[in-house]
UniProtKB/TrEMBL annotation:
Positions of the RagB/SusD domain: 351-504
PROSITE patterns: PROKAR_LIPOPROTEIN
GO cellular component terms given for this protein: cell outer membrane
Domain SusD-like N-terminal intervals: 48-224
Lineage: Bacteria, Pseudomonadati, Bacteroidota, Cytophagia, Cytophagales
Protein name in UniProt: RagB/SusD family protein
Organism: Echinicola vietnamensis (strain DSM 17526 / LMG 23754 / KMM 6221)
InterPro entries hit by this protein: SusD-like_N, SusD_RagB_dom, TPR-like_helical_dom_sf
Length: 504
């Protein structure tokens, strides 16, 4: 059933300890003491390095829930005090430059890129004579670097481009690069990964490693993001109209025959059904107090719920800032749709026997599978699954004037799995995006989908008018809000090196 490999457990401390960057106010320059030939001497060393690079994915579920799901019309979390970072995100606050999550996300992604760059900088036939293994390790590192840079431009737009390890002094001379230039590296990295990664791994110990199909799925998402309707001149959407490039990649995944929809929607997220036929790439977690558990699960449920249900060292959201699934999203589900009942917990009883009126994401929570504390949930987190491939294909077909019959078949297949037996026809682009919203609730895709589609401003203003019962969310939403603020400490490192994104 598990996992990335045993290295994830036994070597995690060594890999992550060795791979941590030198922390200073030059956080923008992710330099590591491991970046010398003294460490990378053989294949085993590179596998350890890759373990550290994969370990950087641990923050992915949290980042994309806070910065995509909470930002969108899926979650209503204005807060009563407004002091939590995610309340500022929910409310479209313009003071985000000082928010801790802006800094931790920026630094975390650059530390991950440093790890990948350090691996790539040390690869040579001298230390890795096996050409096949050398190419695979290079491809895994490039896949991860491409993924991390894709996150950076989706969150921040223009970012400094480091394609090799640099010194702190060099970093002080490297400005933010145009998004198109960063995309150039991302696409080259993912194309290399497609050409040099296996379609699948035969060893159970390699579960969770990037495959060529994972790279295809990610590159298709990249092309579709580039191709959408541009709202921000320095954001991730460029209006490149590369739908056919995305379709080629998506069809290669579909035609491989390796993946399928799981019959029961709930089984995608079952603790005893990980790495199932729907998963193309996910993030591997382990429970048991090993330090590699899925902390992300506790970012959804309320603290009072956790205490009343015996979750050890409860954690969860604070009483002044619940992350409530929006009324609008709940109303969009048909009565026979199984996805909302499985994904959302509606109301709960606290430790004092009081009924609390709230709705929160529960699709990752199984009270029969608790770890030693709130950081120790076992469930893997899906980054790319087959339903996403199918619905991306429907979207790309819709945008490129493709077959309406295929679009309808795809959407009806997804709806059928959700328990909706009545088919629909002449499915529109807006209907595809709404189906994505219902299918991927809580999976961190919604804000990215809204930005890519060019619908973000209109959808959010309409949603705020009906769902913002607390009157906390700014209605002055503009194209500036399509990306986030550059962290203030990055601006302070060297005056004039970076400019703040407009609107912050």
């Amino acid at each position: 059933m598990k996992k990335l490999n045993k290295l994830y457990i036994t070597l995690l401390g060594l890999a992550t300890g060795a791979m941590v960057s030198c922390e200073s106010k030059l956080d923008q320059s992710p330099i590591s003491s491991i970046g010398s030939n003294a460490f990378y001497q053989n294949e085993s060393d590179f596998i350890k390095g890759l373990t550290g690079a994969y370990n950087g994915l641990n923050a992915y579920p949290i980042n994309h829930f806070e910065l995509s799901e909470v930002r969108s019309d899926n979650i209503y979390s204005p807060g009563t005090a407004g002091v939590r970072d995610y309340n500022l995100i929910n409310n479209f606050n313009t003071n985000l430059a000082t928010a801790g999550i802006m800094n931790s996300t920026w630094n975390g992604l650059y530390n991950n890129i440093m790890r990948a760059n350090t691996i790539l900088d040390n690869i040579s036939p001298d230390v890795l004579p096996d050409e096949a293994m050398r190419s695979r390790i290079e491809a895994e590192a490039k896949f991860l670097r491409g993924l991390y840079y894709f996150d950076l431009i989706r969150f921040y737009g223009k970012v400094p481009l480091f394609d090799r390890p640099v010194t702190p002094l060099e970093a002080l001379e490297i400005p933010r690069s145009p998004v198109a230039d960063v995309y150039g590296l991302i696409i080259a990295d993912l194309e290399f990964a497609i050409d040099n990664l296996p379609d699948e791994y035969t060893s159970a110990g390699d579960l969770g490693r990037a495959t060529s199909h994972a790279a295809r799925g990610l590159l298709a998402r990249v092309y579709m993001t580039r191709s959408g309707t541009q709202l921000h001149p320095d954001g991730p959407v460029l209006g490149t109209n590369e739908w056919s490039e995305a379709l080629t990649l998506l069809n290669e995944i579909i035609n491989s025959g390796q993946f399928d929809l799981v019959d029961d929607y709930a089984d995608i997220f079952a603790y005893d059904n990980e790495n199932n036929e729907e998963i193309i790439f996910d993030i591997q977690f382990l429970s048991g107090g090993l330090g590699v558990g899925g902390e992300y699960v506790q970012y959804h449920y309320p603290e009072a719920f956790a205490r009343s249900n015996g979750i050890p060292f409860a954690g969860g959201t604070f009483p002044d800032a619940p992350k409530t699934v929006s009324a609008d999203l709940m109303a969009s589900y048909e009565s026979v749709d199984v996805r909302d009942d499985f994904s959302v917990w509606v109301n709960y009883t606290d430790a004092n026997g009081n009924t609390v009126q709230d709705r929160f994401i529960k699709k990752y929570l199984d009270l029969d599978n608790l770890g030693v504390d709130r950081f120790d949930f076992e469930l893997n987190y899906p980054v790319i699954r087959y339903a996403d491939i199918l619905l991306m294909k429907a979207e790309a077909l819709s945008k490129s004037g493709g077959s309406q019959t295929e679009i309808d078949e795809i959407v009806n297949e997804i709806r059928g799995r959700a328990g909706i037996s009545t088919p629909i026809s002449n499915v529109t682009y807006d209907q595809i995006m709404e189906e994505r919203r219902r299918e991927f609730i809580g999976e961190g895709l919604r804000w990215h989908d809204l930005v890519r589609s060019g619908m973000a401003i209109d959808v959010m203003l309409d949603w705020i008018a009906t769902d913002d019962s607390g009157n906390k969310i700014s209605t002055d939403i503009t194209s500036d809000d399509m990306i986030y603020a550059v962290p203030i400490n990055q601006l302070d490192v060297k005056e004039g090196l970076y400019e703040q994104n407009p609107g912050y």
